[in-house]
């Protein structure tokens, strides 16, 4: 069988390959996993394998179908993404109209619906119909970041594929060998990405993302020295951040974790390799109990946000409890 253009997730690739080879396909699959871990990439590779001209050995990566899928221009594969943060019922109805027709060129019509948890209730209910009585030759590939936000009725009608973050070493070596990232940067990106290869590649290729990380860390450091008014003002701003506060808080958690590691004499394990000097300064500035508390606070806040608490309130509490340097 051909190698899929996928790094990691070997068990999932193996399972999907077998399903194709044995002709035992589900009508719907749901790929669940952290943001940018590779859910859509895997769904697209699966679609390529289903539609590739080289059956059942695909995806070959070179036939007309594989190439057009890679360019996003194959009519029997459609990608549906949230518009203005939600998947609307109109989008599902359009899908259903297309799904009722025979495939134009391939054996199947494949629809990838990203972030199904963003579907409005009417949209999700409309989609249930397609999941219950799927038209023949239609395969639905859904992705979701959080299982607990997907309707149980949708979960129960899909084959679930849970994708885990990749091991550190696999991420690092993939960045070096496939994306030509220089070794030191690859090591840094691999640690920062926490096994989400898509994030690492995006951070490598997009200077804006990289800049955003820098300014979020700088902001954290500045905030520790600021008063309550400034801190609450920042909490307000963070609560309105378009893609949510989680990424920023995740960066901060990694930062305090690093400071604590240095304080505990485990500097080799830090994530923010490029800021070692600054981390060492910080380690000298705070008592370890304070750093530990900051880390616990952040992790608790992240958990609360997942449980849909009042975002603003959770962030206010977090900001007020931020550590202060022992020495000015
Ligand atoms: Zn092909």
Give an account of the 3D structure:
With 328 residues, the protein is an alpha/beta fold. The chain has three domains: 153 residues, Rossmann fold (3-Layer(aba) Sandwich), CATH 3.40.50.300; 39 residues; 115 residues, Zinc Finger, Delta Prime, domain 3 (Up-down Bundle), CATH 1.20.272. Helices cover 55% and strands 8% of the residues. The chain has 15 helices and five strands. It has a five-stranded parallel sheet with strand order 2-3-4-1-5, sandwiched between helices. The longest helix is centred in the last third of the chain and has 19 residues. It is globular. The protein starts with 9 loop residues before the first helix and ends in an 8-residue tail after the last helix. The mean pLDDT is 91. Bound molecules: zinc ion. Zinc ion (ZN) binds next to helix 3.
């Amino acid at each position: 069988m051909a190698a899929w253009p996928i790094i990691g997730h070997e068990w999932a690739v193996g399972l999907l390959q077998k399903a194709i080879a044995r002709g035992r396909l589900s009508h719907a699959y749901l790929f669940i996993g952290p943001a940018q871990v590779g859910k859509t990439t895997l769904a697209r590779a699966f679609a390529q394998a289903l539609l590739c001209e080289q059956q059942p050995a695909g995806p070959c990566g070179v036939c007309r179908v594989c190439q057009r899928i890679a360019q996003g221009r194959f009519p029997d594969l459609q990608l549906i993404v949230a518009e203005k943060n939600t998947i609307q019922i109109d989008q599902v109805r359009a899908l259903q109209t297309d799904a009722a027709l025979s495939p134009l060129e391939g054996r199947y019509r494949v629809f990838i619906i990203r972030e199904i948890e963003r579907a409005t209730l009417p949209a999700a209910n409309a989609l249930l119909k397609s999941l219950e009585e799927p038209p023949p030759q239609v395969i639905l590939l859904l992705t979701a970041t959080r299982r607990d936000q997907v309707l149980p009725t949708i979960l129960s009608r899909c084959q679930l594929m849970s994708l885990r973050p990749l091991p550190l070493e696999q991420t690092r070596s993939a960045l070096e060998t496939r994306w030509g990232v220089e070794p030191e940067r690859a090591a840094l990106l691999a640690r920062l990405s926490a096994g989400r290869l898509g994030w690492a590649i995006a951070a490598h290729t997009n200077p804006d993302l990289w800049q955003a990380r820098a300014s979020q860390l700088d902001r954290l450091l500045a905030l520790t020295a600021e008063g309550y008014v400034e801190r609450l003002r920042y909490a307000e701003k963070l609560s309105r951040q378009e893609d949510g506060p989680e990424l920023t808080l995740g960066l901060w958690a990694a930062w305090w974790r690093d400071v604590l590691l240095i304080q505990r004499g485990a500097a080799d394990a830090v994530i923010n390799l490029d800021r070692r000097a600054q981390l060492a300064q910080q380690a000298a500035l705070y008592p370890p109990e304070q750093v530990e508390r900051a880390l616990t606070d952040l992790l608790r806040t992240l958990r609360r946000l997942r449980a849909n608490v009042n975002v603003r309130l959770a962030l206010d509490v977090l900001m007020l409890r931020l550590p202060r340097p022992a020495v000015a």
